[in-house]
Amino acid sequence: MMNFKHLLMLALCLLPLMVAPGSGRAVVLDPDTALTASASSSEGVRADGGRAIRPTFVKITSAPPARVAQIRGTTVELECEIMGSPTPTVQWVHGSGQTADWEDISVNVITEDNPTSVARVVTRLVIDRASRASQTTFTCIGRSAGQEVSSSTAVHHVDSVSHLGNFSDMPLLRPSAAVDSMFKNLKGARITLHYKTLFENMGSTVVLPCKAIGRPLPEITWLNEEGNVVGSLQDPRFRTLPTGELIITGLRWADMGSYTCVAKNVLSKDESETFVYPIRPN
User: Fold this and answer.
1) 35-38 and 26-29: which strand pairing?
2) CA 88, 119, 17: angle at the middle one, nearest 5?
């Protein structure tokens, strides 16, 4: 039986799915807990007259701000949340259309590993060093099943607070705190990519990403709802990779719940939570 917390989490997860913009489709849970889709066209119904198939979609559920100011020497973060079926590819690019992959900028990419999944992906772009240019545009792009969505942020670079001028109304996102001189070469742990929610078929192999940056590189630990470490010693179906992903083999109904990724280094720690909901295959 689902407890109240699980019911509340499920309701929040399903809100963006209830109506797919422009598709005329709604996503519902049927009595046997299968995630299915009703459609106003034959596209959402199997040719054999069987149960409706799940529609494909991708949408931005939380966009980064359109404009921000960055004081040179400080750190700012841009956060983008995208939901899709199947799990979308999520990527940041800068104004020239190239992947944001230069030094001191985290690159977050998730690929479509499983065509049956529905996921809400959270990605953060951490910008540690302002460009010499007066302005740089960063774009968060989500792709799934041939569909694409994007949202751009113009980052205005200034030398100091006194130079904000016309940019004083723009947010200064997560400016870096003062760091003791003995820690100048260290950076605190920060999770830059994870799933917020994941719907996946029972029996599937689930991969929950947790990408973190920091200097030294943070160690990744996964916890269950009871706060216990999840790993192969407790259950061989659960395994944490050196790169931080949690692997769940043969997903079961009993696996439903929240899993917390903890990234920790000598300077700080960061946490993110993923809610996993197993569904019955159509």
Assistant:
1) antiparallel
2) 105
The rounded percent of the chain whose pLDDT value lies above 70 is 63
DSSP label at residue 20: B
Query: Judging by beta carbons within 10 Å of its beta carbon (0-12, 13-18, 19+), is residue 64 exposed, middle or buried?
Result: buried
Give residue 275's pLDDT.
98
Structure tokens at 33: 């807990």
Average pLDDT over residues 113-134: 82
Residue 171: pLDDT over 60: no
Does the bond joining 65 to the residue before it have cis omega, within 30 degrees of 0?
A: no
What would the 3-class secondary structure string for 23-63 be? CCEEEEECCCCCEEEECCCHHHECCCCCCECCCCEEEEEEC
Residue with tokens 């689930």: 206
Dump the DSSP string for 117-162: -EEEEEEEEEE-S--SSSEEEEEEEEEETTEEEEEEEEEEEESSGG
Terminal CA-to-CA distance of the chain, rounded, Å? 22
pLDDT for 33: 35
CA torsion, ordered 80, 9, 25, 52, to nearest 10 deg: 120
User: What are the distances in angstroms from CA 58 to CA 28, 43, 119, 269?
Assistant: 17, 17, 10, 31
Dump the DSSP string for 163-190: G-GGGTTS---SPPPP--GGGTT-EEEE
Distance CA 178, CA 176 (A): 7
pLDDT at 200 over 50: yes
- Strands across the sheet containing 238-240: 206-208, 246-248, 238-240
Residue 187 has pLDDT above 70, yes or no: yes
pLDDT one-digit tens code per residue, 32-87: 333 333 222 233 434 444 445 668 999 999 999 999 888 877 888 999 999 999 99
